[in-house]
């Protein structure tokens, strides 16, 4: 006779077998009535194999991009306009000094450095107006984000000709980048690219930034999806007016061109100026137009663009009329180009050629200029289709008689 415990064990085994068999039947029926599930999605960024189709980088989505680096005081200290002329073709880069005068606000000239505290798209709008080149997007990195980007590509090896000794506002040394050939990590590369000692020319910082930036581009992965993963790791300290996919594709293409030595670099042509007691610079318009035509011809703003560029000068220290003209021109569909003081006897609207007299008339009508002749004078409107000259505030008449359209030689 079997022991009772053995009988209970046999019954339990039999029940377990029956349950497993029932579950197997249920699973089989469920699979026969539903499609097979697809593979689980993955969020890990990986290199694409040759059998997987990928999106070919194209400059049509974003032919130009303004890159800015902001320091710890939110000043845009490094600025470069980058253009890609199609896949595997050429990348052109124009570097702008941080002290470039780009706007007029509340009667005061503003420099490019100030755009670091403005809305993200402001810098692109102002650089486009000053340069005559389209700016299709702006990508801004704070110091820590740029340091993270450098570290993500493995650091940069540079031949440093002059050491950089960075000091804070109290004169304390906060970082040193020694001379010699060495590999800089992210924080050191950020100091090297962004610091400018008091009194040093902007060209010195531009040269160091260009040295670092070209290395970063050359070391970016060729796959846009891997560049996107790097950009995503930079967090909120890296911002763009374009989706990260567009920025990643653009930078991947630029990196490919740099590695293939299909890149050209230039510094925007400027003349010395001042904002109050501080040194600043003005764009030299004729040379700037020539530079854009040579390096970024696909991005040059046409004369008949939807928002024609209108340069504005005003005589005297108080640009009250120019400030009022800015708001009017912006609201009337023109691009305001602040061009600083210029001594004139009376208000004048200069156009570059006879075919632009109608445009000049529209500008004059929008501004309500008094007894002003729209004059064909190419020498008075260098680099822009129309230039407006205002006299000093005390010379402006109170009323605005009708505008007369005439033509004269420069």
Under the CATH scheme, which architecture of the domain at 64-154 and 202-283 would be assigned? 3-Layer(aba) Sandwich
Which class of the domain at 64-154 and 202-283 in CATH terms?
A: Alpha Beta
SSE order: HEEEEEHEHEEEEHHHEHEEEHEHEEHEEE
What is the CATH third-level topology name of the domain at 64-154 and 202-283?
A: Aminopeptidase
Shape type: globular
CA radius of gyration is: 30 Å
Helix content: 25-40%
How is the largest sheet built, in terms of strand order?
11-6-1-2-3-12
State the fourth-level CATH superfamily of the domain at 64-154 and 202-283.
Answer: LCP protein
Please report the total strand number as a whole number: 20
> What's the total helix number?
10
Mean of pLDDT: 85
Measured distance between first and last alpha carbons: 127 Å
Strand content: 15-25%
- Largest β sheet strand count, sense and barrel closure: 6 strands, mixed
Question: Unreliable runs, pLDDT <50, ≥5 residues?
Answer: 1-13, 23-61, 397-410
Structural class: alpha/beta
The gist of it:
This protein has 410 residues and is of the alpha/beta class. The protein has 10 helices and 20 strands. Among the domains are: 173 residues, LCP protein (Aminopeptidase), CATH 3.40.630; 101 residues, Alpha-Beta Plaits.
